Amino acid sequence: MTPIPVLLSTASVYPERTAAAFEMAAAAGYDGVEVMVWQDPVSQDSDALLELAHKYGTPILAVHAPCLIWTQRVWSWDPVVRLDRAAQTAAKVGADKVVVHPPFRWQREYGRNFAGQVHRLEDAHGVQVAVENMFPIRAGKRQWCSYYGHWDPSVLGGFRNYTLDISHAAVAKADIFDILDRMGEALSHLHLGDGTGHPRDEHLVPGRGNQPCSEVLQALVERGFAGSVALEISTRSVRGQQQREADVVESLQFARTHLAAAATSPSPASP
Prior knowledge:
By secondary structure, the protein is α/β, with parallel strands linked by helices. The protein contains nine helices and ten strands.
C-alpha cells in the first residue's frame, strides 16, 4: 500500500507567512504543503509558490481557497471568482486538490450554483475540489447555521470530493464517524487537528484534545483511503518560534505514527 501523504497547511504557522511554512515543512520532513490563500501576497502568487516549492524541495499538493470571513477580499469580492482562481492556481502549481468551504447563507446565488461550479472546475482543471465540513454557531443551548443549505456538505450530498475536518466536527459536537461514513469513497482529504467540543474552532495539535484522531487515521487506512492528510493546527498563541516548530514536528510524528501502526496491524477480518 502506498503511504498516505502527510502535508503541512500553511495556516498552521500563522501569523507567520507562507514562506515560513515551507521552511518548517521541509525541516520536519512533511511530504508537501497545503497552501492557505490569504492576505499574504505570496500565497496568492503561483509563480512565487513554485519558487518556494523548488527552493525547499517540498511540493504543493493542495490549495485552500480563500473563503474565511477575513479573506473575502482576496482576489475578488466575488466568491465564484475566488474559487475559479484557486482551481487555476492549483493546476499551475501541480496540486491535485482544492479545499473549499460551503457558501455562506447570504451568498445565495453562489450557493444555488455552487455544486455546478465545483463540478465544472474539476472537469476543466483536472483537480479535486474537496468541500469541507464546517460547524454551526453555538451560544449556550442555541445554535444556528451560517452556511447555505447545511454546515456539513455530506448531508446534502452531490459532491465528488470532500474534506473532513476533525476540529470542525468537534465544534459541531458531531459524530466524526457518521460524517466519515456519509462522505464514504468521496472523502479525498483530511484536516487533522484536535478539539475539545468548545464552541470555538481550536485546531489543537492532535492528541491534545478529546477527539478520536488516531482512530480516524486507522479508519482511513482500513478503508483504503487514497487521499491526503494535512495538519491544520493553530500555533497563534505559542510563545516563540521554537515552540511553533516543536508543534509542527509533534503533529507530523502523531500522523505518521498512527498511520504506520494502522498499516501494519491486522485487519479486523484477519484470523
